[in-house]
Each structure stands twice: as structure tokens, then as C-alpha cells.
Design brief:
Layout lengths: L1 H16 L65 E6 L2 E6 L7 H4 L4 E4 L7 E2 L5 E8 L3 E8 L13 E4 L13 E4 L10 E2 L3 E6 L2 E7 L6 H4 L9 H4 L9 E6 L7 E4 L2 E4 L18 E2 L2 E7 L1 H4 L43 E2 L3 H16 L1
Parallel strand pairs: 1-8, 3-4, 5-12
Antiparallel strand pairs: 1-2, 2-3, 5-6, 6-11, 7-10, 8-9, 10-11, 12-16, 13-14, 15-17
The structure holds 2-acetamido-2-deoxy-beta-D-glucopyranose (4 copies).
The site of one 2-acetamido-2-deoxy-beta-D-glucopyranose has 2 residues, from loops.
Length: 366
């Protein structure tokens, strides 16, 4: 969007300079830099001093489509707030598209925040969106895995989605300018900390959100984003069950991609997209043991927006628009396991749907 406007302007300017010439001017090359001088995740931002936008320049992929300074005046269903708050099962946000019937791969650079409360200047998550949710608390990270009706948050039915994180293909984040804060790791449970290591898998009617403790043992490891194509279950092993809403204490997961075989610790790297669909993965992730689970009714959690209608109308066309990058991340957000009982175990159902999701994403993006 920003690009086509710029190209049109440049084309118009050159036509004016060579008045009389009838051959259309060639499209202007994209001369914007690809990478920022400082990657988004290295830009220090404090909760008390959030700028209007954290990304203020134009890059090859575009500009920041929304804003980070979110308050009561931006709390509505057209909000373009791109600051994500992830505090607890009662108070969290996810990233999803601003316009109805969007795919994640088409809109990864411009997702907006949808929250459970009115406190964060964002859109509200409509009632009935979540049909199950497991929150796992560890000293190193806080993880949410839920079953959702994704059309409620503007995701096209059938879209297997993908992964969003603070890095992205160029260090600008997905969405561009994403900022994530949490009170979960502060000693008083109420101080907001900048959690620049995080990721979100969304699509396939599931969502996974993980924020890593900035003072934890390995925030970049637990929240790494190099395994976007192998899906939620490899990145966020869990025992979420559709129909159950619970918060549990959890042992830490294995660092995603690290596994043991024959007594050796091995490391899996995801093959490049150019090598085609991933057809086998040499391990299944271990689900960490969990304890102290407290269960809730969804009506106890999703209180602020209990009477909100699902999103059906187009949002206002504000924002400068981040354009989609051709090298977009594919990948399946599916799937979580639903074994019902807690305790250490292995994944039983995920691989097939993950592979299908990857294949689907490839077909879609080809
Ligand atoms: C509220 O947020 C909007 C949008 O970011 C911003 O323009 C405005 O200055 C903010 N208001 C306050 C009081 O911070
Ligand atoms: C959503 O988008 C798909 C693909 O473009 C289209 O086939 C479908 O009709 C759209 N649905 C609605 C409700 O607009
Ligand atoms: C913070 O939350 C934890 C877990 O709910 C609780 O055990 C602890 O007492 C809380 N600390 C404070 C200072 O409220
Ligand atoms: C979760 O359960 C609901 C029924 O309560 C069902 O409609 C939905 O398809 C299920 N979601 C998934 C992802 O299986």
C-alpha cells in the first residue's frame, strides 16, 4: 500500500518531467533499506514511555501500519493498536488481522492486538472466540494455547496461519513494530516489563502465545523463532483441551528444536522453504509435566466483552499500511494435543495435521 502510493507518485513525477512521452515510466525500484539499524527486539521501550510508533522509518517491506501508544481513546473494534499485553488468563491479548476474512500470511506485517480486557486500548476478543485454553506458568516463560473460532478475530476460515514474532524476516517484527509487555515476571505481579522475546502461532482454529521472562535462564531459546514451519506443538508443547479453561504450573519445556536420541542431545534445524514441504521431523516434542491446575468457566475469564458482537464489518482504512513481503513466513499454527490429563507424555496427534498445514501453506503461497 505504501509502496504503490510511492510508485504512483514517482511515476507521475517522471511523466511530468518528460511531458509528451507516451511510453509508461517503468515501476520505480524499491530503494528503501531492508534492515533497520537496530532490530526491533533490541530497541529499549518502557511501558511508561511507549512511543506513538516504535518504527518510524520506511523500509523495503513498508512501514508500521498501526501504533504502539494505546489508550482509552483507541479502545474500540477498529483499533490499530499493536502493543500486546500478556499478563494472565484473565488479562491477555493476541495478534490477529484488522480486516475480516484475512489470512495470516497476507497480513503478518500488520496484525493488531485483540485483548480480553478494555484496559489496553485495543480491540476486544468477542465472546465465544475461545472454546478452550491452557495457560502454563514457568519461571522462564508464560504460555497460552487455546482453541478458537478464528473468524471472530478476522482470520479466514480454513487458514492454517503462521508464526508472528519480534524478529520477522528483516528484524522489524511481525507485525512490524510489535511490542509485548507483561506483568507476569515482576516481583510485585504488577510492574510491566518489556518482553521482547515472544512468539504467537495463530491459525487452524488454534492460537499459541508465549512470552519469555527477560530475566529468565534463556529467553531467546525458549521463545526462539527459527521453527515457524513445524507448528505450535513443537514450539509450545501443551495439553490444552477444547472445552477446558485452566491455568497450571509447569516444568519448563525442552528448548524448541533440542531433543535427545540414543542418549545424545541433538539439535534440529528447520530446512529452508526452497527445499519444499517438510515431510518428516526426527523427534516428537516432550510435553512438560504440569501441576496445580485451576479450572475456570469461560464466562469468568472473558467478562469485559461478554456482550460484544463478533467482528463482521470492515475496519476503518486507517494506517499507512505495511506491505506483504514476498519472502513471507509460511507455517502451520496447528496443532495442540488434547489428551485431557496432566503429566509428562508425548505428543500423539500433531504431526499429521502439522505436515498438512505446512503443505497447505505452501500451496497457498506458491
Ligand atoms: C492516546 O493514543 C493515541 C493514539 O496512539 C494518541 O494519539 C494520543 O496522544 C494518546 N493520548 C494520550 C493521553 O496519551
Ligand atoms: C473470504 O475470502 C475467500 C477467498 O478470497 C472468499 O472465497 C470468500 O468468499 C470470502 N468470504 C467472505 C465471507 O467474504
Ligand atoms: C504474585 O503471584 C504469585 C502467583 O500467583 C503469588 O504466589 C505471589 O504471592 C504474588 N506476589 C505478590 C507480591 O502479590
Ligand atoms: C472445539 O469445540 C467446539 C465445540 O465446542 C467445536 O465447534 C470446535 O470445532 C472445536 N475446535 C477445534 C479446533 O477442534
Amino acid at each position: 500500500m505504501a509502496h504503490s502510493a510511492l510508485s504512483a507518485f514517482v511515476a507521475l513525477a517522471s511523466l511530468t518531467l518528460v511531458a509528451g512521452q507516451t511510453t509508461p515510466a517503468p515501476a520505480a525500484p524499491n530503494t528503501q533499506p531492508t534492515f533497520p539499524a537496530t532490530p526491533l527486539s533490541d530497541i529499549p521501550v518502557t511501558y511508561s514511555d511507549i512511543p506513538y510508533q516504535v518504527i518510524t522509518s520506511t523500509y523495503a517491506r513498508g512501514t508500521q501500519s498501526g501504533y504502539n501508544l494505546c489508550n482509552s481513546t483507541t479502545q474500540n473494534q477498529n483499533s490499530e493498536c499493536q502493543t500486546l499485553i500478556v499478563n494472565s488468563i484473565f488479562d491477555f491479548c493476541l495478534y490477529a488481522p484488522g480486516q475480516p476474512n484475512s489470512t495470516i500470511s497476507d497480513t503478518e506485517g500488520e496484525e493488531v492486538a485483540w485483548c480480553t480486557t478494555k484496559n489496553h486500548g485495543s480491540r476486544g476478543i468477542p465472546p465465544g472466540t475461545f472454546t478452550g485454553l491452557q495457560v502454563l506458568r514457568t519461571a522462564d516463560y508464560l504460555q497460552f494455547v487455546g482453541f478458537i473460532n478464528q473468524a471472530n478475530v478476522n482470520i479466514q476460515p480454513g487458514d492454517f496461519g503462521g508464526e508472528l514474532d519480534g524478529g520477522g524476516q528483516d528484524g522489524l517484527g511481525n507485525p512490524i513494530g510489535a511490542e509485548v509487555f507483561s506483568t507476569a515476571f515482576s516481583s510485585d505481579n504488577s510492574t510491566y516489563q518489556h518482553t521482547s522475546q515472544w512468539n504467537v502461532f495463530i491459525g487452524g482454529n488454534q492460537v499459541g502465545i508465549k512470552v519469555c521472562n527477560p530475566a529468565g535462564s534463556n529467553p531467546a531459546g525458549y521463545c526462539q523463532h527459527t521453527l515457524d514451519r513445524i507448528g505450535l506443538i513443537y514450539n509450545m508443547p501443551n495439553q490444552a483441551a477444547n472445552g477446558t479453561f485452566e491455568v497450571c504450573d509447569s516444568a519448563p519445556m525442552d528448548i524448541p528444536g533440542v531433543y535427545t536420541s540414543g542418549g545424545q542431545t541433538l539439535s534440529y534445524s528447520q530446512p529452508a522453504e526452497s527445499l519444499g514441504p517438510i515431510t518428516s521431523i526426527p523427534y516428537t516434542p516432550r510435553i512438560p509435566s504440569s501441576s496445580n491446575c485451576q479450572t475456570y468457566q469461560s464466562s469468568q475469564i472473558f467478562t469485559d466483552f461478554a456482550s460484544l458482537a463478533p467482528s463482521t464489518t470492515a475496519a476503518s482504512p486507517t494506517g499507512t499500511g505495511a506491505s506483504k513481503n514476498s519472502g513471507t513466513r509460511a507455517g502451520s499454527a496447528a496443532s495442540a494435543s488434547a489428551t485431557g490429563s496432566n503429566g509428562a507424555g508425548t505428543v500423539t496427534i500433531s504431526l499429521f495435521s502439522t505436515i498438512l498445514g505446512v503443505a497447505f501453506s505452501f500451496a497457498f503461497l506458491a
